[in-house]
Amino acid sequence: MKLHPLMLVGTGSDVGKSVLCAALCRIFLQDGYRPAPFKAQNMALNSFATPDGMEIGRAQAVQAEACRLAPHTDMNPLLLKPNSEHTTQVVLNGKPIGNRSAYEYFRKEGREELRQEVHAAFDRLEKVYNPVVMEGAGSVSEINLRDTDLVNMPMARHADADVILVADIDRGGVFASCYGSIMLQLPEDKARIKGIIINKFRGDIRLFEEGRRMMEEICGVPVLGVVPMFKDIVIDEEDSMQLQQKRRTLAEGKVNIAVVLLRHLSNFTDFSVLERDERVNLFYTSNTTDIEQADIVILPGTKATLDDLLELRRNGVAQAIVRAHRNGTFIMGICGGYQMLGQTVSDPDGIEGSIASLPGLGLLDIETVMTSEKTTQLVEFEFNGAKCKGYEIHQGRSTTDKQILQQGNCLGTYIHGILDNPAVIDFILKDKTKATAETMDIDTFRNKQYDLLAEHVRKYVDIDKLYSILTQNKE
Prior knowledge:
The protein has helices at residues 17-30, 58-66, 102-106, 111-128, 153-159, 174-183, 187-190, 209-219, 272-276, 288-293, 305-315, 317-326, 336-340, 422-429, 442-460, 463-471; strands at residues 6-10, 36-38, 41-43, 47-49, 55-57, 78-82, 87-92, 95-101, 132-139, 162-168, 193-201, 223-228, 255-260, 265-266, 280-285, 296-299, 301-302, 330-334, 344-346, 357-359, 367-383, 386-398, 404-407, 410-413. With 475 residues, it is an alpha/beta fold. The chain folds into two domains: 6-229 and 448-471, Rossmann fold (3-Layer(aba) Sandwich); 240-429, Rossmann fold (3-Layer(aba) Sandwich). A six-stranded parallel beta sheet has the order 2-9-1-10-11-12, sandwiched between helices. Strands 15-13-16-18-24-23 form a six-stranded mixed beta sheet. Helix 1 (17-30) crosses helix 15 (442-460). It is globular and about 65 Å long.
């Protein structure tokens, strides 16, 4: 049976659209359909490499995995990667096309060309998959951006999609945000909104029964479900807002791993597996004392290597890392963090910004020059006799052809996902603990999480009602 395209839009950012889309992707797959995810425009520093060497947002890669599909640029044809508070790198169909200021990007000139590109990507997916599970961006009621919007209701119109509004009850104001989000729509767009999902509920759901009835009465659409918060299901998050909840500190009886909290930190999902390791206390910090007392210090990826390197020198973190290294602490750098550990980082053509060159931390014998060409690829490698895999997404060339460079107690690599591999984790922990951890193949683990997520959402969302909406004849 052919289902209508489905779009989840939000009353705001971080209401849980991405995770709910992943859940619905797995549910449709379990029910015998062939779903695929789609987000016309994504803004994120967490990205992923496709098998053909292109780049898309991490959320759509996760959703593709929930569909048991390889990620493809058609699933996220337009990706914005902020370089600073004012500029962003624009990635179209998997390849960067330059940097834009917010004003340049959101003005009307040139928008129709981008609109045609994202429409074409959706059209290609829609011919092959059933249904296409679409994700909106931010708030659906930003009426000042209506004329230039590529991702919310104008995209739903093109797709002729049924729209479900997602609201985060945990942040408060759920009645006003749902009612306002619907009432601010144009009549034709308002008619597309077929239901509401209340997300991130805490406490006894029975206490919201009257609230559910009132919500349906004032908004004029059914509440399809009230979904509780979950803690024991592990789904990669895209938004770095989650990092603020992980700013813990040192813990006794664990291997303390300090991830340096950079201003432009990217691909923090590199640490998802380590966070679950029972031997480890992993936390994000810019506190110099914690960094010097940690067992392992990791410099993560960044979208602005030179800007973050300058800040590390200003706030004393760079010096703390060097002192920790001198005292025997194991230091690891990934992608931009790897570049910072070298002798110099240079940007003669201003690829990242106005900083032409800075000395690195001097812990690895490499030098890096930023280049306009971007490396985006999946990689396979061998580590201590084990076959491993990961992916690279970076700008800049370093003076070594080694995938992993270790010199003493310092190791650097361009490979994201390197810490998803048990052989690598066991290596960095080997001198820090005698305990062993039960390991599970990462693909097996993730598929189990998608099944648990689907089970959770089925329990609290009226999936039969959703199918009724997606199969109802349209006038």
